[in-house]
Design goal:
It is a single chain. About 40% of the residues lie in helices and about 20% in strands. By secondary structure, the chain is an alpha/beta fold. The structure holds adenosine-5'-triphosphate (ATP) and magnesium ion.
Length: about 400
């Protein structure tokens, strides 16, 4: 058997899920397949075939074409939720002589110029006759014979060499050369939500945080043509694309608020503009979520950040909403949100200066502690509110903007 370079994917939390475990694993496997499919499509690599094997709480990915360096997939797979670590390893047959040969070929070069190493062996296939300490000893010997300048240290070596004897083969890798995965739970394992995505910094982070807990994300973006431009919407599509590297394909809904905003301006007191608009936005979001079988609405609100995010405003805006609303950024400071935005790669796009529907007709003195009674009085001045909502939803453009990488 020719040895193969593989990526060893380890998952944390999902391994704890008892009876559901195999469902989680299937989902994770499917998400890995989708991420690889997108990678192939993007890079024009349609002729490459990859093998994914699932085996005792790890997965391995390899490529049938030996000229393809499997490490190229590390940046792709490190965005798939549910994977905790990724190791670049070599898989070979379960034969101690072959294992030593592979250690010399692939690990010895890694040990050059290193001060110390240790070997850890793990034998989850108990039918393999040689016990773990003996495997470690034999592999350690050949590596040391090859490089007498290095010390063996079994407490805190510079490089840990790992040999894993599993049902589907023997795996050898330098176990402290590992890459961090995205962690969390496989996308799709915890329901589906409608993310209200503006072009700002906070809402992409909110979507990422919920997706990381396993939620499948759809996006709703509000526009206000001609006050907002096609380029502002295009920016939000780009943000959705960045998010889809983590959460897979995203359905994108765009709803125009122009008519509603003009009615608010015409009939209602200026100071209430933002609160009233946000009530319309949330009502529309709730309707779209329900008619598309989405379990909840997600926003990027952070307590006290702006006038419409005081506790009094939130109470009034979400009065009478009967769908769960998640605001994962609610307790985060702006600097923490920015840190995540930078990490996931949305920050640079978010700070591009385009207009948002919420910044159109903004009042000079927005109410920061609105009373429900006064808000309802203002809202009731718009006699055809229900029709406006219905029209906005029926004019929404839905399928044509699906975000696939
Ligand atoms: P963000 O940085 O996400 O824009 P923000 O702090 O600027 O948030 P607001 O503009 O008040 O706050 O918006 C609060 C939340 O309302 C946003 O996080 C987002 O979820 C939603 N939202 C705002 N504008 C839009 C829009 N044009 N389309 C969809 N959702 C929006
Ligand atoms: Mg905003």
């Amino acid at each position: 058997m020719q040895e193969t370079k593989v990526l060893l994917l380890k998952y944390g939390e999902i391994a704890l899920k008892g009876l559901n475990r195999s469902n989680f694993e299937k989902l994770l496997e499917q998400n890995i397949i989708n991420a690889i499919r997108n990678y192939k499509n993007l890079g024009n690599k349609k002729n490459l075939y990859f093998n994914i094997e699932r085996e005792q709480s790890i997965m391995t990915v390899s490529c049938e074409d030996i000229n393809f360096d499997i490490d190229n997939l590390i940046p792709v797979l490190s965005k798939v939720f549910g994977i905790v670590t990724i190791n670049s390893a070599v898989k070979t047959e379960k034969n101690i002589e072959k294992i030593k040969e592979i250690a010399l070929k692939y690990i010895a070069p890694v040990l050059e110029n290193k001060k110390s190493f240790g070997v850890l062996a793990k034998r989850s296939d108990k039918s393999f006759a040689i016990k773990s300490p003996e495997i470690a000893l034999q592999v350690g010997d050949v590596l040391f014979e090859n490089n007498k300048n290095i010390k063996v240290d079994l407490k805190n070596p510079e490089v840990w060499v790992a040999v894993e004897i599993r049902n589907n083969g023997a795996f050898i890798h330098a176990s402290n050369v590992k890459y961090k995965g995205a962690g969390g739970m496989p996308t799709g394992s915890n329901g589906a939500g409608l993310l209200l995505l503006s072009g700002g910094i906070d809402s992409p982070v909110a979507g990422y945080m919920m997706a990381r807990r396993g939620m499948k994300i759809s996006v709703l973006h509000f526009t206000s043509e001609p006050y907002t431009s096609e380029r502002a919407k295009e920016k939000v599509l780009r943000l959705s694309k960045i998010l889809s590297q983590y959460c897979g394909d995203i359905k994108f809904y765009a709803v125009s608020l122009t008519e509603i905003q003009e009615s608010i301006r015409q009939y209602c007191a200026e100071d209430y503009t933002t609160v009233l608009l946000r009530r319309f936005m949330i009502k529309i979001a709730g309707e779209i979520a329900k008619s598309n079988y989405l379990d909840c609405v997600i926003t990027g609100e952070s307590l006290g950040q702006v006038a419409s995010q005081t506790i009094q405003a939130i109470k009034v805006i979400y009065d009478n909403i009967n769908i769960p609303v998640f605001r994962p950024c609610i307790g985060l400071d702006k600097s923490q949100i920015i840190e995540t935005a930078e990490k996931i790669g949305t920050y640079e796009t978010s700070v591009e200066p385009y207009e948002d529907c919420c910044s159109i007709f903004t009042p000079r003195h927005p109410v920061t502690k609105p009373k429900l009674e006064s808000v309802l009085t203002e809202e009731n001045r718009i006699a055809d509110a229900a029709d406006l909502i219905e029209r906005a939803i029926s004019n929404s453009n839905i399928d044509k903007d699906n975000v696939n990488l």
